[in-house]
Amino acid sequence: MELTGSQILLESLKLEGVDTIFGYPGGAVINIYDDLYESPINHVLTRHEQAAVHAADGYARCTGKVGVVVATSGPGATNTVTGIATAYMDSIPMVIICGQVPTPLIGNDAFQEADMCGITRPCTKHNYLVKDIRDLARTIKEAFYIARTGRPGPVLIDLPKDIQVTKHKFSYPDKVSLRGYKPTYSGNSRQIEKAAKMILAARKPVLYVGGGITLAAAEDELLKLAEQTQIPVTTTLMAMAAFPQRHPLALGMLGMHGTFYANMSVTECDLLIAVGSRFDDRVTGRIDSFAEKAKIIHVDVDPTSIGKNVDVDLPIVGDLKDVLGKLLGILSQKSELVEDSVESTEEWRTMIYEWKERHPMTYRSSKSVIKPQYVIEKISEMTDEDAIITTEVGQHQMWAAQFFTFRQPRTFLTSGGLGTMGFGLPSALGAQVAFPDRQVIDISGDGSFQMNSQELATLVQYQLPVKIAILNNNYLGMVRQWQQMFFEKRYSQTVMELPIDFIKLAEAYGATGLQATKVDEVEATIKQALETPGPVLMNFKVSREENVLPMVPAGKAIHEMVLAS
Amino acid sequence: MKHTISVLVENEFGVLSRISGLFSGRGFNIESLSVAPTMEADLSRMTLVTRGDDRILEQITKQLNKLISTIKVVDFTHGEYIERELALIKVSTDAESRAEALRIVDIFRAKVIDVTPKSYTIEITGSPAKINGILELLRPMGIKEVVRSGPVVIGRGAKGVVA
Questions:
Q1: Nearest to A83 by CA among A451, A496, A528
Q2: Where are the beta strands (DSSP E) in A416-480?
Q3: What Rg, from alpha-carbon coordinates, does chain A have?
């Protein structure tokens, strides 16, 4: 049967198991939208293309499926770029379909033309311009395959308008054949054997776990490995939900705003086992003193991550589920040696618990002003630590990582690599679309919230019961904190002079707006929000000049933390 | 340290920008780059010359391999290989210098491929060092224009680089 390009697209999406698209119509995708009119595929209309990408991203992060976006050519497509770069930095599987001007017009500066393959080349895993209808089905097949395999990432398909209306016989390929793309899944057994030896020989081992653990769905293997060997686990921002934070072996986050005990553990350890993490500068601080005393094992599916920032003693390229599974297999055959090792690392754990006792993750509580950390603790408590949390970027993001007690994978969706303000609300939207019955909460700041606040309209339109908690300090708080600490309190352009009436804003969109200005109103506000159907915005007027601590100043080693203001 | 790398890539739209963009985006340097299709029409071979320490070169090789369009990357630096570059040189000549110019061309086994009363255009193939050598000798006569292809390399021995 002959189908048009846009029909081929939608049929292919169905065959890829896509049930939801996030997008925004326009002239260059009008044919796709015409076919969507009768399609069983659910389409969520955001109010900005950037939000559509973040929503697809949130959907992908909490489900593990590939997020799908449709946007029109030119400005529609360029609006997706921040979202794509966000997904790229955090390795989120996604396919973005952009309309393009008709092929004869490409390169002519046509109306709403932008060179999307050129623009997104450095922020996509791969991209395609489809110039021939015969390539379309194969291109879609490859795009989904590339997006979800190996180290996942966004793939963009630029689809000219004339290709969308050209008819061609539809047959969807069963397989892809990409001679230049063959990710390594199976870890080298000899290397893994060596890793087991190093682990058994270590006296002060630490697991340093990043977002790759969730991308590989290897959280169970990680937990087993940690429990079997009693090796403490520090997680990056991207992996906070990948290891139960109430676990006695959990050290919380490391790095610039990491816990004292996580940073000390990494500084003092004799073996650092990096798993799906990439030695980001926010994690390592001054690189030459990061884990200076340790041998380093680095396991990652992406060879470019290994040896990029630090020299590694034992590299293992492979899928984390495969590698950790094999490692567990080897260790289970050496149970006596493992027991000995647990015994000989007892002293190390005692040392860590002493650090933890000396400097726990805490803050100075107050009865007169609402502390932002207190709000997060309360949300954590009142949702049984079971909600899907999204964040924007800034102080509130760090406090969420520090004070929400995560216990389930895929419940903390945050822009780690790119650090995109405005990510939280649309990604919460996407998560709520994926899980209509779960509690989804966007922890936000007053600055970040305003970067995509128009998505309140989308929440109301689709009656998505996302709860938004704005920790409102009327500042761009993280930059203000830096200005306070390193620029003599010269608060250049970080004071949000205009206090917004967020309640009215919520109400204008048809959402519920709540506010807490006193400490004793916090619980009641959260309770009311959780009990109110539909989207609810909570405006918490928090202590204005609260700082995120501990903090490792830029250029310092991670044990050189500022612990108190 | 200088490295000469061969990259087999899909001969497709945008592949050159993927490679050059990778270098500029990550701050790697490219001294020269030459590209042409191979015997297989859907494959191109690039030869690029770059500089960096071991860690940078490891990253360059890994990042090149990571591109979906890249099929094979070979760093020739540590093996036995033959390197050739083509240069076209337009040199000013007068009655006095014409004989000397021809002698130089002869010594370097180059060729004169275009002649005017006031100039010779010379074609020379060889290692980049040989080309530097002839340029040095021709310089006093007045070089009007030089076009260099950048080196291409091939490994010694019977084994070829295949996809």
A1: A451
A2: 440-445, 467-472
A3: 24
Alpha carbons A225 and A207: distance in angstroms, whole number: 10
In chain B, what residues touch A153 (CB-CB under 8 Å)?
A: none
pLDDT for the residue B162: 85
Q: Is A336 left (phi over 0), alpha (psi -120 to 50) or beta?
A: alpha
Find all residues with CB under 8 Å of A536, minimum gap 6, and list them: A465, A467, A468, A506, A511, A512, A513, A514, A528, A529
How far is residue A312 from each of residues A272, A294, A303, A541, measured CA to CA in Å? Answer: 10, 10, 12, 46
The backbone torsions φ and ψ at residue A452, rounded to the nearest 5 degrees and listed phi first, read -145, 30
Q: Is A451 on the interface with B (CB under 8 A)?
A: no
Give the integer Cα–Cα distance in Å for A481 and A337: 48
Instruction: Determine, for residues A129 and B70 on separate chains, whether the beta-carbon distance falls below 8 Å.
Output: no
The C-alpha angle with vertex A40 and arms to A135 and A143, in degrees rounded to 5, equals 30
Location of structure tokens 């950390």: A373
**B42 inside 8 A of chain A by CB:** no
Which helix (H) or strand (E) segment holds residue A154: the answer is: strand A154-160
Alpha helices (H) in A230-288, listed in sequence order: 260-268, 281-284
Chain A residues 288-347 within an 8 A CB cutoff of chain B: 302-304, 307-308, 311
User: Which residue in chain B is spatially nearest to A304 when comparing CA positions?
Assistant: B62
CA-to-CA separations, A27 to A9, A31, A112, A445, B101, in angstroms, rounded: 17, 8, 9, 35, 65
Task: Identify all chain A residues contacting B14, using CB atoms and an 8 Å cutoff.
Answer: 117-118, 121, 129
Q: How far apart are CA A294 and CA A280, in angstroms?
A: 18
CA distance A135 to A350: 61
Q: Can you tell me the distance from the alpha carbon of A445 to that of A462, in angstroms, rounded to the nearest whole number?
A: 24
Average pLDDT score over residue span A456-474: 98
Q: Which two tokens stand for residue A312?
A: 């590694």
* pLDDT exceeds cutoff 90 at A564: no
Question: What secondary structure letter does DSSP report for A374?
Answer: H
Residue type present at position A531: E
- Cβ(A325)–Cβ(A208) under 8 Å? no
Phi, psi torsion values for B115, nearest 5 degrees: -130, 135
Which of B158, B43, B75 lies closest to A180 in space, CA to CA? B43
The SS3 assignment for B47 reads strand
pLDDT at A491 over 80: yes
**What average pLDDT does this structure show over A378-407?**
97
Q: What is the DSSP letter of A171?
A: -
CA A131 – CA A136 distance, rounded (Å):
9
Identity of residue A371 = K
A550 prior amide bond cis, ω within 30: yes
Q: What DSSP letter does each residue of A476-488 carry, written as one string?
A: -HHHHHHHHHHST
- Residue A45 pairs in a beta bridge with A23
- Residues A52-88 have pLDDT tens digits of 999 999 999 999 999 999 999 999 999 999 999 999 9
Q: Which residues contact A37 (CB under 8 A, 6 or more apart)?
A: none
Name chain B contacts of A121, Cβ cutoff 8 Å.
14, 17-18, 21
- Look up residue A204 and give its two tokens: 């002060």
Instruction: Tell me which residue of A137, A352, A150, A340 sits closest to A261, measured CA to CA.
Output: A352
Distance in angstroms (rounded) separating the CA atoms of residues B48 and B65: 14
| DSSP conformation letters of A301-326 | S-GGGTTSSS--SEEEES-HHHHHHH
